[in-house]
Amino acid sequence: MSSTLRFVIAILIVAFYTLPLMLVQELALRTRLLSDRIVPRLWHRLTLGVLGVRVRMEGRPSTQRPQMIVANHVSWLDILVLGSLDGVHFIAKSEMRGWPILGTFARQQRSVFVERERRRTSPEQAREIAERLADGDPMVLFAEGTTGDGNRLLPFKSTLFSAAQLALASDRAESVTVQPVAITYLSKGGLRLDRRERAALSWIGDTDLLPNLVTVLQARPVDIVVRYGDPIPFLAKGDRKTVTREAEAQVRAMLTAGLRGTEI
């Protein structure tokens, strides 16, 4: 089957179930008759199936709230991958708000959109994230601030970790649980990826979304491993830079072990 035909079929299938699910999600948001986390998780799982992406989870996700999930970032696929495993909400770049389909679902999933390049807006953005954490919403932060090539970890930025401290100002919790998570792109077509192939699947910088989607479809099945690290309690008097370094060290160790096929 040609890549063009495979792409068209995938888009048609996703379109077939997306509109009805969006309507159900809108109903959930407006009426609270059902949890607004159910439909996004279902959509993510269905779409991963259409794309031929298989996800394996390792480790134990924390059930403690408030919770900030801190992960590395390789591709737009990371959102579908983490969203398929649990009812989470994302801290996303502001540009994503205008994306077709993904942007709409990001809004309906109650993502917080941030402008990382505008440092003056960081305190306001941190307060919005803090409110969501204090309300019990598990928030996903891609702490590198951008996407990498999947072969190495970029330094974590500590700015938005301040949201964890702000969430404790309401006195509704004694600490925020920071859960490190490593996303490893492991194989395609049943064969382990090398560095070049892994980088080709990543979505870096200003790369257009559609060509990357075609690359993913051509590589199917793609196997991705999500490994959960040890939860880190962030106390009201904790230091965000210390917590950032600890989370970064865990994610780097898990990513390295996943790429090498070893245990940690």
Description:
It comes from Nitratireductor aquibiodomus. The chain crosses the membrane at residues 6-24. Keywords: Acyltransferase, Lipid biosynthesis, Lipid metabolism, Membrane, Transferase, Transmembrane, Transmembrane helix. Residues 67-186 form the Phospholipid/glycerol acyltransferase domain. Pathway: Lipid metabolism. The protein is α/β, with parallel strands linked by helices and 264 residues long. It has one domain. 44% of the residues lie in helices and 19% in strands. The chain has 9 helices and 9 strands. It has helices at 3-31, 38-51, 77-85, 102-108, 122-134, 162-167, 195-201, 209-219, 240-260; strands spanning 53-58, 67-71, 89-93, 112-114, 139-142, 175-188, 191-192, 222-228, 232-235. Strands 1, 2, 3, 4, 5, 6, 7, 8 and 9 form a 9-stranded mixed β-sheet that branches. Helix 2 crosses helix 3 (77-85). The protein starts with a helix and ends with a helix. 37% of the residues are buried.
Oligomer state equals single chain
The tally of strands reads: 9
Strand proportion, as a percent range, falls in: 15-25%
Head-to-tail CA distance between termini: 41 Å
Gyration radius, in Å: 18 Å
Indicate the percent of residues in helices: 40-55%
Query: Whole-number average pLDDT?
Result: 89
Low-confidence spans: none
Q: Describe the global form.
A: globular
Largest sheet, strands/sense/barrel? 9 strands, mixed
The total tally of domains equals 1
Count of discrete alpha- or pi-helical segments spanning 4 or more residues: 9
Class derived from helix and strand content: alpha/beta
Write the H/E string, N to C.
HHEEHEHEHEHEEHHEEH
